[in-house]
Design a protein that fits this description.
There is one protein chain. With 223 residues, the protein is an alpha/beta fold. The chain has nine helices and eight strands. Strands 7-6-5-4-3-2-1-8 form an eight-stranded parallel β-sheet. The chain is globular, with a radius of gyration of 17 Å. The protein binds pyridoxal-5'-phosphate. The site of pyridoxal-5'-phosphate has 12 residues, from strand 8.
């Protein structure tokens, strides 16, 4: 069951900040996606390749599918024909595989680099040094990477009650984005997406400059 009032309120809030609302539909049935689609929602996020592929085949083709989970290289080819934006790129090897599969499909695939901004230990996401290294490696091979576009950064804040901590993590991510935007990517007008904020912290993320929030449970109920 979707929460229509929540969708109306949140999409208005997000639109008024010139940001994009990605409705995170993982584990939820296609009927729920159809219900939000009927209200006008077009951006949907999924975490699992198999689930995304199955749902996309059943749903309207003007849905913009965001892959927001951890993507394994051997699964890129399954979503390459249709995915709109891949949020979780955290290695050059993955970027290279996306470029290869995009090229095979005669498309350019947009991606975000995932940063590790939270205090919690996780294997996913880059620190600032790794980010710079990846961007340098990409730059050195740029001519061969024309089927992929790095459009911005994505991150997840700590799962904590400490709002100051969360706010400072979002601020850090936004500053990293601005640094790249005025530096390495200054001539690329497509660069500038800052994907941060989920059900529990999206307002703080918007305050810190998020341009894309990924919201699941507030719209679809808890998982
Ligand atoms: C599941 C998920 C979300 C949505 O989380 P909610 O708390 O349900 O809004 C956002 N981003 C990522 C990366 C997720 O895996």
């Amino acid at each position: 069951m979707i929460d229509v009032a929540a969708w109306q309120r949140i999409s208005q809030e997000v639109n008024s900040r010139n940001a994009t609302l990605v409705a995170v539909s993982k584990t939820k049935p296609v009927e729920d996606i159809q219900a939000l689609y009927a209200l006008g929602q077009r951006d949907f996020g999924e975490n699992y390749v198999q689930e995304l592929s199955e749902k996309a085949a059943l749903l309207p083709t003007d849905i913009r599918w965001h892959f927001i989970g951890h993507l394994q290289r051997n699964k890129v080819k399954q979503i390459a024909p249709f995915v709109h934006l891949i949020h979780g790129v955290d290695s050059f090897r993955l970027l290279k595989e996306i470029n290869k599969q995009a090229s095979k499909n005669n498309r350019v695939i947009d991606v975000l680099l995932q940063m590790h901004i939270a205090q919690e230990e996780t294997k996913f996401g880059l620190d600032e040094n790794e980010l710079n290294e990846l961007v340098e490696t990409y730059n050195a091979q740029k001519a061969a990477m024309a089927a992929v576009r790095i459009c911005g950064l994505m991150g997840m804040a700590s799962n904590t009650e400490d709002v100051n901590q969360v706010r400072s993590e979002f601020k850090n991510l936004h500053q990293l984005l601005q640094k790249l935007q005025s530096g390495f990517f200054k001539d690329e007008n497509y660069f500038g997406i800052c994907s941060m904020g989920m059900s529990g912290d999206y307002q703080m993320a918007l305050d810190a400059g998020s341009s894309m929030v990924r919201i699941g449970s507030l719209l679809f109920g808890s998982r």
